[in-house]
Amino acid sequence: MTLTRSQDEPDPSAGGPDASGGPDPAGGPDPSSGGLYARLTEFAGRSAATAGTGKDPVNLPMIRHWCEAMGDDHPAYRGPDAVAPPTMLQAWTMGGLSGHTDRASAHEELFALLDGAGYTSVVATDCEQEYLRPLRPGDEISFDTVIESVSALKTTKLGSGHFVTTRTDVRAGGQLAGTHRFRILKYAPAARPRGPEPTPGTEAEQPAGARAAGGRAAGGRAAEQRATARRPRPVVNRDNAGFWEGVAAHRLLVQRCGDCAALRFPWLPGCADCGSPEWDTVEASGAGTVYSYVVMHHPSFPAFDPPYAVALVELAEGVRMISNVVGVPYDKVRIGMPVRLEFLRVDEELELPVFRAGGED
User: Fold this and answer.
1) Tens-binned pLDDT, residue by residue, of the chain (361 aa)
2) Nearest-5° angle of CA 229, CA 231, CA 234?
């Protein structure tokens, strides 16, 4: 069985100037210098990971979380004879927030070469999966990944760049269980028309969805829709009500275990370290750094205005939370960027903690 999943991004087979054809008409880097494409093609067939191992064996809790997130209640994925959903194939090989420790040097060398040539942005475009046998709870996962191909220079709506395709062979107990091909575009963003510089406190500093844009026809209607749409309301319950009470008082409260003093965020009814239900709170200083981030381009939602960056911020206290970064364009957010807490009122009822780039008081 083979599954192809597209994310509605540019077709890597679409036309575009070859890397030896001179400067990029979209205004990106000139890849002809130094024979960049010839160097890129040398990575085809090189190993990106050898004898990697899954961080966890196939297990029912991960299957349950996946099915809940996907809304898949098929009976084959639960009970004593459960199998893992086939489309979870990649999940068992992921490195998580701590990353991969088993990548070969070729992977880093390829990305460093592309970054050095100016292709610093990345977007996933599509994946293909082939399933040879079902995965069952208890299966120990191993995998090998190879850089299958690097395309010639392609020009897309996002910008110009190179498609990189990797193939991962996933094994269970040493036997091939499936193959996962993953394609990304490493690109230099196309130049965007510049409008008038905003004044402080206007929409450029607000998180996505908190601003309305002008325009005509469809663009004007979309802006009007964003202006009238409200951000989704957070779910407030007895387990997290204290956090939102803190936000209303312009305080970012972090839970602290009453027994082992471990800090935790988001709020939970019990300690993940020792299991104690006793807790109090400490107020975060507001200092933090961007631990990771993604730029959302699609799908659009009436209260949000893509593209925008969603950041995972590591607070000075050591816990992490997801929020917007304000005061900097979405394409200038970087891992390690210092940020500082502030509170933004997005409508008459809702105020949210956000983080301002720079990190100074």
Assistant:
1) 444 444 444 444 444 433 333 334 444 454 444 489 999 999 999 999 888 899 999 999 999 999 988 888 899 999 999 999 999 999 999 887 777 666 788 988 999 999 999 999 998 888 999 999 999 999 999 999 999 999 999 998 889 999 999 999 999 999 999 999 999 999 998 876 554 444 444 444 444 444 434 444 445 555 555 556 788 888 888 889 999 999 999 999 999 999 999 999 999 888 888 889 999 999 999 999 999 999 988 777 778 888 889 999 999 999 999 999 999 999 999 999 999 999 999 888 899 999 999 855 4
2) 150
* Chain centre to alpha carbon of residue 234: 21
Task: Give dist(CA 13, CA 15) in Å, integer.
Answer: 6
Judged by DSSP in three states, 292 sits in: strand
Model confidence, pTM: 0.51
| 152-to-14, 23, 39, 108, 283 alpha-carbon distances in Å | 11, 13, 11, 19, 52
Whose structure tokens read 């639960």? 78
Give the SS3 label for residue 127: strand
- Please state the φ and ψ torsions of residue 247, each to the nearest 5 degrees: -60, -40
The two three-digit tokens of residue 173, written as one number: 């107990």
